[in-house]
Write a structure and sequence with these properties.
Order of helices and strands: EEEHEHEHHHEHEHEEHEHEEHEH
Radius of gyration: 24 Å
GO molecular function, one term: ATP binding
Number of strands: 13
Strand content: 25-35%
CATH architecture of the largest domain: 3-Layer(aba) Sandwich
Helix content: 25-40%
CATH topology of the largest domain: Rossmann fold
Number of helices: 11
Pfam families: ABC_tran (PF00005)
Membrane topology: Peripheral membrane protein
Bound molecules: adenosine-5'-triphosphate
Main location: membrane
Strand order of the largest sheet: 5-6-7-3-8-9
Protein name: ABC transporter ATP-binding protein
CATH superfamily of the largest domain: P-loop containing nucleotide triphosphate hydrolases
Length: 300
């Protein structure tokens, strides 16, 4: 694997913004990725994930700020074979086999890993003689992954790599990526899927409206939105009194039940059980889905 001693960082973004005319797609991102990390870039549609990845790939330049890949300008890093990307679609010839596809790609590079080794690493050695047209979406993505591994890149970028794949295809794809990343490769992938980020990344960078709104492990992201939900049966709930309790974010009354989002669930439960006729009091932690919506400001 190729690394550079001049910078220990795989990716460094400092004060990066990107405007498209009046659209501010990226509004000031600072981000450092360390070698060997698997990082998910998680965010809703239009958050700025692809725009940021394109800048890391040297496909576009930031409006302000700097982007460095392994201590180099992204285009130099690409030219040196330090970076590869797996995109969502395109780029495959249907009438040749999996092995022929990788061999053909290898012939375009001066110096590559052996074809059989990358087929093995991508988990598609068993289907090497299959025509691309006969491969499932997941197998085609693993083929793109094999092609991306040919220059033995230190950094691998994946833009929503599992869109349209079924659960099994997704699992097989990620187990190949994970096994390979054990060797020290840095991986940055964009995704809409919370579960995918939580399951396969060491670190989640949550992005919304062109800014990073949270950065940490799956459990850390959940802890940031550390509120709990308290539900109880309580006809004629005094919503003003509940809203006035410390740490209450939101009170919702539906029919005879009340739902409260609060940081201090004990105080709410104590109030409900001692000061009111509430019954069936239920407290649940926020799931990753709710944490995501609350942190990206997209909750109802
Ligand atoms: N070439 C462009 N010209 C004008 N606006 C653009 C261009 N590329 C992106 N945008 C806008 O910039 C914002 C960020 O888009 P971007 O594609 O980076 O988001 P994303 O997080 O990758 O979204 P998705 O998950 O839908 O792919 C959006 O408002 C988008 O419409």
């Amino acid at each position: 694997m190729t690394t550079t001693s001049t910078s220990p960082l795989a990716v460094r973004l400092a004060g990066v913004t990107k405007d498209f005319g009046p659209v501010q797609a990226v509004r000031g991102i600072d981000l450092e990725l360390h070698p060997g990390e698997i990082v998910a870039f998680l965010g809703p549609n239009g958050a700025g994930k692809t725009t940021t990845i394109d800048m890391v790939l040297g496909l576009s330049r930031p409006t302000t700020g700097t982007v460095e890949v392994l201590g180099l300008d992204p285009r130099r890093a690409i030219a040196r074979g330090l970076v590869s990307a797996v995109m969502q679609t395109g780029g495959l010839l249907k009438d040749i086999t999996v092995r022929e596809t990788v061999a053909y790609t290898a012939s375009l590079f001066a110096d590559t890993e052996p074809v059989d080794a990358v087929l093995e690493r991508a988990g598609i050695a068993g289907i090497a003689d299959r025509k691309v047209a006969k491969c499932s979406g997941g197998e085609q993505q693993r083929l793109r992954f094999a092609m991306a591994l040919l220059p033995d890149p230190a950094l691998l970028l994946l833009d929503e790599p599992t869109t349209g794949m079924d659960v099994e295809g997704r699992r097989a794809f990620w187990s190949a990526i994970r096994a390979d990343a054990g060797a020290g490769r840095t991986v940055l992938f964009a995704t809409h899927y919370l579960e995918e980020a939580d399951q396969y990344a060491d670190r989640i960078v949550l992005i919304s409206k062109g800014r990073i709104v949270a950065d940490g492990t799956g459990p850390q992201i959940r802890a940031l939105a550390s509120g709990r939900t308290i539900r109880a049966w309580l006809p004629d709930a005094d919503t003003a009194a509940i809203a006035g309790l410390g740490g209450v974010d939101h009170v919702d009354v539906r029919g005879e039940s009340v739902t409260v989002h609060a940081k201090d669930s004990d105080a709410v439960a104590r109030y409900l059980l001692t000061e009111t006729d509430a019954r069936d009091v239920e407290i649940t932690a926020m799931g990753l889905e709710e944490a995501f919506l609350s942190l990206t400001g997209e909750s109802a």
